[in-house]
Amino acid sequence: MEHILSILIFFPLLAGILGFVVDKEVAKAYGISVAAVEFLLSLWLWASFDTNYAGMQFNEFAPIISQFGISYNLGVDGISLFIVLMSTLITLLGIILLDEDKIANMKNMIISLLFLEMTMVGVFLSLDAIIFYLFWELSLVPMLYIIGAWGGPTRVYAAVKFFLYTFAGSLVMLVGLLAIAYLYHLEAGVWTFNLLDWYQLDLSVGLQFWLFLALFAGFAIKVPMFPFHTWLPHAHGQAPTIGSVILAAVLLKMGTYGFVRFSLPLFPDASVEMIPFIVVLSIIMVIYTAMVAFAQKDMKQVIAYSSVSHMGIIMIGVFAMNAEGLGGSIFLMLSHGIVSGALFMLVGVIYERTGTKTMSEFGGLASIMPVYATVFGIMLMASVGLPLTIGFVGEFLVLLGFYEVSPIATILAGTTIIIGSVYMLSLFKKSFFGPVTNEKNRGLKDLNVRELTALLPLVAIVVWLGVYPKPVLGPIDKSVKQLLVNMEYKARTQKAKDTIISMQLAKEEK
Amino acid sequence: MESLVYIALFAPFVGSLFAGLFFARSPKNIIVGIVNPALIGLSLLASIILAFYVAEHGAVHVTMMDWISAGSLHIPFGFIVDKVSVTMMIVVTTVSTVVHVYSNGYMDHDKSFNRFFSYLSAFVFSMMILVMSDNFAGLFIGWEGVGVCSWLLIGFWYHKKDVTPDINPAISPSYAANEAFIMNRIADLGMLVGIFLIYWNVGSLQYDVVFKALPHLTDGILVAIAIGLFIGAMGKSAQFPLHTWLTDAMEGPTPVSALIHAATMVTAGVFLVIRANPLFGMEAVQGVSYFIAALGTFVAFYAASMALVNRDLKRIIAYSTLSQLGYMFAAAGLGAYWIALFHLAAHAFFKALLFLGAGNVMHAMDDELDLFKMGGLKKAMRGTYIYMGVASLALAGLPPLAGYFSKDAIIETAFNEGTLVLWGMLVFTAGLTAFYSFRQVFLTFEGEERYKLFGFHPHEMYKYVLIAMSPLAILAVVAGWFQGSFHEFIITLLPEYEMSHHTHHLAGKLGLIVLAFAITGIVIAYFKYARRGEKAFKQDEKVENGFIYKLLINQYYVPDFYVEFIVKPYKAISEKFWAIDKAVVDGTVDMIAKVIYTTGDKTRTIQNGNLSSYLNWMGAGTLLLILAAAVVAVMS
Fold first, then answer.
1. Angle, to 10 degrees, between the axis of helix A299-318 and the axis of helix A275-295?
2. pLDDT tens by residue, A356-368
3. A403–B196: do the CB atoms touch at under 8 Å?
4. Which of A7, A44, B115, B636 sees the fewest Cβ atoms within 10 Å?
């Protein structure tokens, strides 16, 4: 399977197109089988991935417009491998969770999801800036449709806001990408959008700074970083469960992935220069949105704001400039995907049963739905970063890594372990503890087989990667170290070279 | 020996899974009630064998597998069974075994019987990880693990509803559980910072590597690490100002209070200081260590003072736990680590016994906790009376019981160090301890039978439960007799602490002073609370309206302070932030969109399809261009 990456990208697309002719009755089954095959393919990718090699693997290269250096260029390394795996897994489980009785027009939903899957996998596998940008923008379309067609009462407002806001940022990013290509042309005399070629480009610190900002516009809105986060609560508030699950688990990661894949290696000096700026925004994200989360009345909004708060920790890790922090932030992207995905699924479960997400309508759910409460409790603990759950590893590494950069900032960001448990525990208390306050809830059924099938794999992953993160952390660590070595080598200023701690330096010291 | 280490560690885990996976949804199952205590007993047995092995052959060190490896950080799941950890293991498993058997009786009628055992065993497992780990990260796993189990168990009766603080100061079990978890998390942040500092300055989190590297670190770093770790210890061991959660934690079932909030988990902080004695014993961190001792002494007194007036059976014991933890910290802070550990063990036995006795009383009195509604229970509950009496004697430090040896050693240490203020406070607190302990015992068991007024029909606990408690009773009596051999056992690992000649000389007299205080306390308690008839105890309005009584019964208004100055402002600020988020942050975005939209809407009139207006616009445009050209021409 030489072209495994192409298959991974285009299989969902082809299957999605074929989906138009599939019978309505079997749409969900069709979706599950396609997503399952896709997931197995990504597992196969993992199995045949050389974990001892830090660089890009399974490269595919075919020129598209050679006079402009635009090419079909794919590759996967330890950083992108697991994000792809998570995307295919979450898509599969999300489709399994779809309730055929509740979702009108299941066929369109499945087709949208498969298109979305293509764009997600495409973003993480592209090594050509133009292809990357195409997938990046295309991912907006199915999500726009999912929110707009299956969303809540103000879905059109939310969907348009989501689309325009992120699109506006992306356009600035596109200008940045074109500028990089132009600068490359100035220097080397040839046009190329090949990211690996770009890595060789030596830019002055001033140019790095402006280009960093251009790309920042695209990435930061996607993450979403404070103060560009307000589209997210609207989108989550209106999106159907599946939309929120994929949005939180995968789409947000495109932003942080962009920082790792583009900003850090292309602009090492600017990245170091921008640490204070990024960190201030991130700490505001962590603390401010955690407090906003605490003020929410709606369960889903708590999770939505908590997502922003956790993304702040990821951002801090990305700019830790050492293998502990950066590796941790990539692991945290995965764990946040798993945990927030599961939490949105869980909110969806209760919403489907009661038609409400307001916490004051619940109370005492633990007595009525013990299994549901248990699964929710496990995800809660993973969300607050309990050791031996998936949530701890990344958070611990990020904070540990960033401590080397700034102890004060780490302590401020570290308050996440306190305020994170404040809003999560108060959510849990309001919804699950106490006497049953709403008589209507008495007859609620506990999780059924469909829901358990979607949720139990996530529970298993939460425990497995919490206890034994090595299979995932190992390849991440390898590629991250490689990235840092390249950054340090490429950095122009001494300050950047000093801040970036690659393992090479550590070895020399010893 | 490796397999014994794993048996000691994982037997409780197996028990937890057994009860949790197979019986979670079924009603009370007696198999759980037998299998789980048996597994904890197995863990105890393994720990005892290990203790003998360790005494003879030295520490057993096993590395199970890698946990986290990133950058140059490598954390394994490694376990060390040395003399310190094996002491803790035996203490934990002994108390756990008794509490597990006891819970069979106490939780008899609870519909979540199996769930209770699952949590309880999970707690033991976490506690074993905490004491057995060979590195700081592993310790942190156990640290957080016991925190979660404590959260689950305090909130075990989660279905109870919130009430106002004047009815129940803890508001509700679930509220108390959250309070405990969050307050511990505040301290955990300090601990994490300590861990980060260790990593970036040593490059490893393994105890042996870290302790070996300590002499190479600068004083500032050492102090920072010590402060970070101690903040962590303050949370788990409920030292001021992070102490309020412990009394509210009494909302949990009484076996939980006995095991977690008296004997084991709350001593984790003391254990950490003992474990890290190479750090806390260093010259550079003497300031921190002295602070630990001073804070411990303060808490010992502070908590004891609140116990003087409280009417709640369990809260009094909780205060006494706080107070005794203060004693342990005093010893550890002054460098007498082995004495701290000795008191930790002795305290675990008699305090667990005291709590289980209180559980018997609650069981007999339909969960009533108000001492003023009890009295004269000795007729109905002779066995429990004896147990609680013995435990209180041990707590008060009367010879020849356990507390006499362990607590006296701490007080003597304070004298030996020349810290006479600490010494004085500790001696005085010993008197208070004796008083409040016997106030409680006498109000419960002696005096008028006030319970009759309230229509209670107390009955003694099941016989097998009483028998199950007997090991603790025996240990509460005899544990002190082994001070010498314990000293010999532990001292190869912990630094020796010996009294000076001067202190040694005065030891007898010093002991008598402490004893005098203790006996005075008991005698006062007797005259005030134990008598019947004319001289029987009556509530005194005048005292209860006094300033000091009000101060003490309101816990020095510390919980109120937290509510007013932390909880409420936090809520208010959160609400404010949310409003800002909607109005300002999101408002700006919407405003930009609106401006663009209205501009488009307004300028749309330009293209209205009317030819004459197009011509007008064209004319105006041309004029404008000509003007611009003219201006430019003139300018240049």
1. 160
2. 898 988 888 988 9
3. yes
4. B636
A367 touches chain B (CB under 8 A): yes
| Residue entry with tokens 């000076």 | B500
For β-strands A70-76 and B60-70, DSSP reports them as unpaired
pLDDT score, position A78: 92
Domain count, chain A: 1
List residues bridging with B133 in a β-sheet.
Answer: B79
Within 8 A of B578 by CB-CB distance, chain A residues are 292, 295-296
* Gap between the Cα atoms of A155 and A148, Å rounded: 5
pLDDT of residue A503: 60
Task: Provide the CA A325 distance to its chain's centre, in angstroms.
Answer: 17
Residue B104, token pair as written in the block: 């069979």
The reply to whether residue A417 touches residue B570, judged by beta carbons under 8 angstroms, is no
Q: Please, what is the Cα angle at A461 between A368 and A237, to 5 degrees?
A: 60
pLDDT at A1 over 80: no
Q: Do B68 and A393 touch (CB under 8 A)?
A: yes
Nearest alpha-carbon partner for B129 in B62, B51, B45: B62
> Touching check for A410 and chain B: CB below 8 Å?
yes
Q: In this structure, what token pair is assigned to residue A101?
A: 């009785």
For residue A65, give the 3-state DSSP assignment. Answer: strand
Range of the domain at A327: 274-467
Q: Where are the alpha helices (DSSP H) in B308-447?
A: 313-333, 337-364, 382-396, 402-416, 420-445
What pTM was computed for the model? 0.93
Question: What would the pLDDT profile of B392-411 be if each residue is shown by its tens digit?
Answer: 999 998 888 998 999 989 99
- Residues 65 through 84 of chain B touching chain A, CB cutoff 8 Å: 65-73
B233 Cβ neighbours under 8 A, 6+ residues apart: B187, B191, B239, B268, B269, B270, B272, B273
Minimum distance, in Å, between the CA of residue A440 and any CA atom of chain B: 17
Is residue A407 included in any domain, yes or no? yes
- Residue A112: the pLDDT is 94
Q: Which residues of A touch B69 (CB under 8 A)?
A: 470, 473-474, 477
The predicted structure's pLDDT at residue A507: 45
Chain A residues inside the 8 Å CB shell of B231: none
Q: What's the pLDDT at B28?
A: 80
Contact check, Cβ <8 Å, B181/A421: yes
- The β-bridge partners of A501 are A322
Of B145, B148, B581, the CB nearest to A292: B581
d(CA A480, CA A474): 10
Q: Is residue A290 part of a domain?
A: yes
CA atoms within 13 A on the CB side of A428: 29
Q: Which of A61, A60, A57 is nearest to A69 (CA)?
A: A61
Q: Is A371 among the domain residues?
A: yes
Interface check B10 vs A, CB under 8 A? no
Q: What is the pLDDT of residues A141-154, one digit of tens each?
A: 999 999 999 988 99
Task: Please indicate if any CB of chain A lies within 8 Å of the CB of B552.
Answer: no
Determine the residue type at B379. K
Chain A hits for B589, CB-CB cut-off 8 Å, are: 161, 165, 230-231
8 Å CB contact of A397 and B141: no
Contacts of A381 in chain B (CB under 8 A): 148
- Cβ contact A309:A416 at 8 Å: yes
Nearest CA in chain A to B156: A433
- Contact with chain B for residue A463, Cβ under 8 A: no
Q: What per-residue confidence (pLDDT) applies to B98? A: 94
- Spans in chain B with pLDDT lower than 50: none
CA-only gyration radius of chain B, Å: 31
Tell me how far apart the terminal alpha carbons of chain B are, to the nearest angstrom.
97
Q: Is residue A1 part of a domain?
A: no
User: Does the beta carbon of A372 lie under 8 angstroms from any beta carbon of chain B?
Assistant: no
Task: Let me know: does A272 contact A184? Beta carbons within 8 Å.
Answer: no
Return mean pLDDT, chain A.
92
To which residue do tokens 């037998």 refer? B34
